[in-house]
Amino acid sequence: MSTDFSQPQRQSVVGILVLFFYSLQQYGRALWPIIVIWIFKFDEVNKMYLLLGGILVFVAIAVVSYLKYLNFTFFLDTINEEFIITEGVFNKTKTAIQLDKIQQVNINQSFVQRLIGVYELDVDTAGTNKKEGAIKAISHELALELKSRLLQNEVKKSTSEAEESHFGKSIEKQLEEEHPFIKISFLSLLKIGITSNYGRSISLLLLFLITVSDYIKKITGRDVFHDENIENYVDKNLVIQTFFIFIILLLSTVLVINLVRIVFKYYDYNITRQKGSLLLSFGLLNTKSTIIKPEKVQITTVTSNYFQKKMNILELKIRQATSGEKEERKSAIEIPGCSVSESDAILQLLFRKIPKKGVMLKPNFRKLGFSLFLSIGLPLSGFGAFGYWVMPVVFEYGYLVPIYIILVGFVQFFRFKNSRLFIDDHFIIKQSGAWDISNEIIEPTKIQAITTSQLFWHKNLNIGSITLHTAGGEISFQLGNFTTIKKYVNLWLYEIETSNSNWM
Amino acid sequence: MENFTNETIDTSQLPKFEEVQFTVLHPNYWKVTLISCFILIVFICSGMLLGLIFIKEFSEFQSELMSLTIVLIVLILLFSRIAFRKKRFAFRNHDVLFRHGIIATNTIVIPYNRIQHVALHEGLVSRYFGLAKIEIFTAGGSASNIEIPGIEKEQAENIKQLLMGKIQKQL
């Protein structure tokens, strides 16, 4: 029954056709401007040349796809338990995937493949979101067989996992009784609604206002904001009053929009415990539900601002490791409006203990200088240069410059003041933000790779940056004491390398 | 923060990643880099020449354009050289280190038990010099992958085998 996969194999012979169509598609996409020009100048161009050129291109693509077919082989190395794909005509690539690491094997069929009667086999690991290995043309039986061979180890693994979960159950049951579930009340949602996402709502509102005024301008042919009639209506004494009314109106609209959005999205937010995982369901019109598995959690973010702290409320964001599509990978699960005790209960569930803020790392003051340079220095010199050489008219708005400097300066100062890295034995917490202060929590065992970085003129100052990569994103901290950073990097590496901790 | 203590491990006794002896890339890889630089330079020069021949306005600035091209070429060569000199790698018992960067020194460390899979690339030019590039993938996204170019083909094959062995042992 079994085909011998241990010898390097080519794809199905008819696969040359698939490769031909795919190459054609690829070149067609790359060369479409030229093709369009050809079509438009069809009458002017010598038809003989066109025909010859066309044939030449087709032959070249056919040769290339034949070579691609010849050079594409795959095989199962049974001794080392790995799946090896060799490909490439001039630039050769050899991809080796350990069988244990394979998460998914998908068998697909595109339109072209259906016409020809072959299938595509994709091998997916937890790594980068693109497919790690893809065989473009393979017969259905062979695909199924290869799939079962590739996933043989998976069966073994899942049985051992099942045993493990059996052991853990008795402990979990005890915990379950302590925390039956958390329900986020309507009041909490209201609190979150009026205290969060000011920036996003204001920009949405501005966008809306601009669109509406544009629309009115188009219909009536008059500019709403610079209409003389309006200026005539408004008495000079009333100018300030109307301005304030406008501001209040704007703010209340922002609040209402925020409230409605939050309530619609998160109405009736329920968190239930189920076999050690968290089950979330929420939504007013269409109820969404998601599962959080504690072992898959990579980065947990706790965010709150000044008002929210006063109201004893905060937002949680959880990023899990996914081997799925890009969008799924990017999106975080949000839990809005927990009280501190509720969030502690959730964190307790996820980490089995409440994260502690350990040793504190502060950034060097040069970080503030650099961000001030980027956010104030560069834009202002751009503004100056633009006004000086291109349009002196912009200097009429010069009175905005001090406002901008003060505003951005404050934001950058608080961002610098809040930028901290806390290191505990079991947790790394990065604090950041100007108004909304967020704490990103990761466990050292979830680290996939560590990057340290130092500019050469920072060597004597002994400051540098660190980035911790996890399967759910990365956290980085700039310009801290480099000796301390290096010490912890060595410690984390030691911890990762001496234990076989499960990061997913 | 300096008096961090831990009951079980003495952190000062831990192996230090910053003191690791790094291996530089194979000298032939500089030739590979030079060839790809040369191709780039040929493109720039031919673009410049075409511009000078066909666009009349350009001929007024002939000397400026020439010096600009020369500066560009010198910069390309200089930065390629620095980048080549600063790229280095090390394989320890439990992890792989790669150092790179022109103005910043970036060191990326991947523990073997976090490697997902390994790929071996051979470019057309590299193959002529018997060199290969190893790419090491983790689950942490593209920023946490390592690409080590300029390793002799045979050595690269050995490294790949070593890595695959290490991955396996961890499970």
Automatic annotation (TrEMBL), chain A:
<feature type="transmembrane region" description="Helical">
    <location>
        <begin position="243"/>
        <end position="264"/>
    </location>
</feature>
<feature type="domain" description="YdbS-like PH">
    <location>
        <begin position="417"/>
        <end position="474"/>
    </location>
</feature>
<dbReference type="InterPro" id="IPR014529">
    <property type="entry name" value="UCP026631"/>
</dbReference>
<feature type="transmembrane region" description="Helical">
    <location>
        <begin position="198"/>
        <end position="216"/>
    </location>
</feature>
<feature type="transmembrane region" description="Helical">
    <location>
        <begin position="48"/>
        <end position="67"/>
    </location>
</feature>
<feature type="domain" description="YdbS-like PH">
    <location>
        <begin position="80"/>
        <end position="148"/>
    </location>
</feature>
<keyword id="KW-0812">Transmembrane</keyword>
<feature type="transmembrane region" description="Helical">
    <location>
        <begin position="12"/>
        <end position="28"/>
    </location>
</feature>
<dbReference type="InterPro" id="IPR005182">
    <property type="entry name" value="YdbS-like_PH"/>
</dbReference>
<feature type="transmembrane region" description="Helical">
    <location>
        <begin position="370"/>
        <end position="391"/>
    </location>
</feature>
<protein>
    <submittedName>
        <fullName>Putative membrane protein</fullName>
    </submittedName>
</protein>
<keyword id="KW-1133">Transmembrane helix</keyword>
<keyword id="KW-0472">Membrane</keyword>
<dbReference type="Pfam" id="PF03703">
    <property type="entry name" value="bPH_2"/>
</dbReference>
<feature type="transmembrane region" description="Helical">
    <location>
        <begin position="397"/>
        <end position="414"/>
    </location>
</feature>
From TrEMBL, chain B:
<keyword id="KW-0812">Transmembrane</keyword>
<dbReference type="InterPro" id="IPR005182">
    <property type="entry name" value="YdbS-like_PH"/>
</dbReference>
<feature type="domain" description="YdbS-like PH">
    <location>
        <begin position="85"/>
        <end position="162"/>
    </location>
</feature>
<feature type="transmembrane region" description="Helical">
    <location>
        <begin position="65"/>
        <end position="84"/>
    </location>
</feature>
<protein>
    <recommendedName>
        <fullName>YdbS-like PH domain-containing protein</fullName>
    </recommendedName>
</protein>
<keyword id="KW-1133">Transmembrane helix</keyword>
<feature type="transmembrane region" description="Helical">
    <location>
        <begin position="32"/>
        <end position="53"/>
    </location>
</feature>
<dbReference type="Pfam" id="PF03703">
    <property type="entry name" value="bPH_2"/>
</dbReference>
<keyword id="KW-0472">Membrane</keyword>
